[in-house]
Specification:
9-stranded mixed β-sheet, 19% helix, alpha+beta, 7 helices, 5-stranded mixed β-sheet
Length: 413
């Protein structure tokens, strides 16, 4: 049985491109949703600059990143009172942004609720013929990491990762690097980039606000297929497993927006952390793959017996819900050749050649209706992972977001 801790690995505040204040994010996840830990990962900034204020605008125009709406400022003050600090600058009203240290001091409850700092490194490769964006979370890395660009996407991606590694070494921090929504915006991160960077251990497979701006009527690879493709090719090269995460990518926190696109509680991880819940223990458990990802289904137990090569899964069932447990694998003799399909765009730099991943990669080898099931690996299985799908539909209609709530175990080899 696991001592599961629920956490959000990807959230934003007014430090980058969310209107919501850091205090509101902490309040929503701690007091309303009862998460155990939350990672604050604003774009290209670690929130450690003091005395930064954000203007309050009465009727801001629709724009991105959003300005701080006066109505939301009033709502925030009504909700949290003096925890929200409003200042006057001449005739303007400003709202102070709390640093991460201030947020921790105000909202953390040791052993019960933990805030983890970091940033979302947002960069890429840009030229007249190619525009590629990389969004990668540096979790528990207490310094802003500014992205760099190389001569092509491979060099740019590697440069970002090497800069992260250098920063972590200098800061001496226990950190995680996670590739975010690799299929956004125009399937920007070729899976080969992840395959060829064996040090990577984490990538998002579920993100509640991100689709891909390509032709909707064309078949494209799912995030799970992308994951299996990366897994299969890494394992045959002798590289390690890459773990799949589910996140909110939260930008919206008000009662009117929290349940929708880029809202909250649509994607999370459940970390098996049986000892004291500290940042280090959570990071260590994540790095060891002792977690599962979910957008609504909870698991009671995950057990892999390495001697018998058997994976057992048991659902923490809810009354009235029905479940199917599916075991996914790729065989050692899978077809290494993957054709690509060209997706045209009127702007040349957004055209893409996307791999059309075959059915032999990430195939379901066993499906069981019920709350408990097991699968014993055969000698030709590269790995096994499980997906648990409920008959309860999800409430979001976002490209690549599941149509029914589900959970994903990590792969076992």
């Amino acid at each position: 049985m696991g001592n599961w801790k629920k956490g959000a690995l990807h959230t934003h505040t007014a430090w980058s491109d969310a209107a919501g204040l850091p205090e509101i994010a902490a309040y929503i996840y701690r007091d309303k949703l009862h998460y155990d830990f939350v990672c604050i990962t604003d774009h290209n900034i670690y929130p450690d600059e003091e005395n930064v204020s954000f203007p309050i605008v009465e009727n801001p125009p629709p724009m991105w990143p959003p300005l701080f709406d006066a109505a939301e400022a009033r709502w925030s003050r009504e909700l949290l009172g003096e925890k929200i600090e409003v200042r006057k600058l001449g005739i303007r009203q400003m709202i102070k942004l709390k640093t991460f240290a201030e947020l921790q001091q105000e909202w953390e409850i040791p052993g019960k609720f933990i805030l983890i700092g970091g940033s979302e490194i947002t960069g890429g490769h840009y030229s007249a013929t190619e525009r590629i964006e990389f969004h990668c979370n540096a979790i528990n890395c207490p310094r802003t990491i500014y992205p760099v660009m190389g001569k092509d996407q491979q060099e740019s991606f590697r440069a970002i990762y090497e800069l992260y590694r250098q920063t972590v070494a200098e800061e001496k921090c226990n950190s995680i690097f996670m590739v975010n929504h690799p299929f956004w915006r125009y399937w920007d991160i070729d899976p080969q980039l992840i395959i060829d960077t064996p040090e990577l251990k984490f990538m998002e497979i579920c993100n509640n606000g991100i689709g891909a701006e390509i032709q909707a009527d064309d078949p494209v690879t799912s995030p799970e297929k992308y994951w299996d493709y990366v897994l299969a090719h890494r394992l045959v090269k002798g590289y390690g497993i890459i773990y799949g995460t589910a996140t909110d990518d939260a930008h919206h926190y008000t009662p009117e927006t929290i349940s929708g696109f880029c809202g909250c509680d649509h994607g999370w991880v459940m970390v098996n952390c049986p000892g004291e819940m500290t940042t280090d223990n959570l990071i260590n458990a994540l790095n060891a793959g002792n977690f599962y990802s979910s957008c609504g289904v909870y698991l009671e137990n995950i057990d892999f017996d390495s001697a018998s090569r058997t994976l057992k899964v048991k659902v923490a069932a809810r009354p009235g819900e029905k479940y199917q447990i599916r075991f996914i694998t790729t065989k050692k003799d899978f077809n290494r050749h993957t054709p690509k399909k060209h997706f045209h765009h009127e702007k040349a730099y957004w055209q893409r050649d996307i791999p059309m991943i075959g059915e032999d990669i990430g195939a379901c080898v066993k499906a069981v209706d019920g709350i408990e099931a097991h699968y014993t690996m055969t000698p030709d299985d590269l790995y096994v992972r499980a997906e648990v799908v409920s008959d309860t539909p999800t409430q979001l209609e976002v490209m690549f977001y599941p149509r029914h709530i589900k959970a994903w175990t990590q792969p076992f080899i």
